Amino acid sequence: MKRFLDTNKAINGFYLIIQGCFLLSFLLLQGCNDAKAINIDASSSAIGALLSDGNFGVFGNFGNSEGTSPVNISLSGYVDVTSTDLNLTLSDSTTSTTQTLQLSANGSYSFSTELPSGNSYSITLGSYTQGQTCNITSNASGTAGTTGTATVVCERQLAIAAGWKNNSSVPVLRLFGVNHSSSPYTVTENFAVAVGGTPSSVDPELVWNGTNYLLVWKSADTTIRGQLYDITLTALAAAFTIYTGAGVTIGKVSAAYNPSGEFAIVWTESASTRAAKYQRINASTGALIGTATTISSSTSTSYFNADVIWNGSSYNTAFRQRTSGGANSLTVFSFSTGSATSVRTYSAVNGTDSLALDYPSLLAQGSNTWLFFSQTETDGSGNISGSTLKSSKNFQTTPATMRTETNPYGCGPEGGGDQYMISSAAIASITNLLISYDSVCADVGGTYNEVSDLPVTISSGAVGTPTDYSDSEIGAGGGGPSPSQTLGSSITCRTNACFISVGNESSDAIFLFDPDFGGNIIGGTSTIYPTDASGIEFPVTVIQ
Length: 544
Description:
Blueprint: E1 8-11, E2 14-17, E3 22-23, H1 45-51, E4 68-69, E5 72-76, E6 86-92, E7 97-103, E8 107-110, E9 115-116, E10 120-125, E11 132-138, E12 141-143, E13 150-156, E14 158-165, E15 171-179, E16 186-192, E17 205-208, E18 213-220, E19 223-229, E20 240-244, E21 249-258, E22 262-270, E23 274-282, E24 288-298, E25 302-310, E26 315-322, E27 328-335, E28 341-346, E29 349-350, E30 353-354, E31 357-365, E32 368-378, E33 384-393, E34 400-405, E35 418-427, E36 432-443, E37 446-457, E38 467-468, H2 470-473, E39 490-493, E40 498-504, E41 509-513, E42 526-529, E43 537-543
Parallel strand pairs: 5-13
Antiparallel strand pairs: 1-2, 2-3, 4-9, 5-8, 6-7, 6-10, 10-12, 11-13, 14-15, 14-43, 15-16, 17-18, 18-19, 19-20, 21-22, 22-23, 23-24, 25-26, 26-27, 27-28, 29-30, 31-32, 32-33, 33-34, 35-36, 36-37, 37-38, 39-40, 40-41, 41-42
């Protein structure tokens, strides 16, 4: 930009001397002749700190000696994967002329023709790649030479995968896109994905890699399938097979993205030889990388409910183990390629009882890796008495207790019942995580299910006040056990809110709501998929 290339140019009362020194009205530098040239990238926030007086923003819209001024644009958060540029129109109110600007990548830009200083103008947002919401958050109008940089911020919309069985035991898999930028939320996509078989549970998983989504599910109890979608939830290619096992029953399927350009899929399976395994796939094409690799296997120990994350340098996976003698544990492994390495094994006992540690949920946050899991409590003599949500930051030796439930709403899991918690975790802010979890209790009277959340302070691991939502948000019934069952809510966070997706068997619907840290719902509860006459049994949702 010509106006910044002059070696000595007066700018609003202070001087900028390139390869010399900076003389600012608020800063005196001694030894000016010893100053070194400073090379600062145009996208650096350091420039904003250096050249902003609180009005101009990054660079500002400064004029030049010719009496014209640029109109600058800053774009962030934009994903252009469908060859649809973001279109902006600048209207000069003084001359009644317009010009356009098309942007395909995040960064700092200027409209091609500068405006006469002092002219009033406005900027409007046109078409852009869907599956995201873009807004001009500051300086959408102003005066040339005075008003600062116009800021355009884009944010990916919500994507939800939901799997269930209808009343005829036919498996169902659906994808939803939700515009969360205003309330009530708008469902932008709602379509069925061909399951391709009749698994006992579809068990969907959905992962975003910054460009595409990977949807993973079980098309049969022996087969894992996958399909890639762009940000608009448009399929990029046909579904592909990730794994087929002979004579096995595949358990929960989990997936994680590695920025080197791959996904890792982890699952457990039962057969004559039980195992936990992983398969790496190309994040752009879905092509298999290598073959399925065994993490752990046994002819007597069973494995359940694996989860996996990329921690920045390797994958971590955690899953439940149970020996033929009834000893329970939760084990953590690390892998990149080849064999996996054991990281930590957790177990707990009460009297003669080996407590079940199950439903692990992993979260990578900065340099930290968090593990959340359920611990089923007993009275020490084989009778289930409650459940506890546990956490372990960086796989600490002794997990922390987050919340314990005993007989929720009068549900006592006596007589062969069960009680456990299924959790999902998200980074809510630079200081807090937010955990969504289902507290499930089954006894002779039925099954009670409560969807709740729990804030966690990142620095200390301290737990905040829990909030229970089911009665008011998804109608899970109170005053006694209810036939409602969700098998796990799912949580994700955006810039200004967190969102929980959950399916409710009793109302045959899929819901979305946005809790805050005070037990309130910010924008209300939306019915993403309305009451289905065909029934929704054992619903599982995954939100990204």
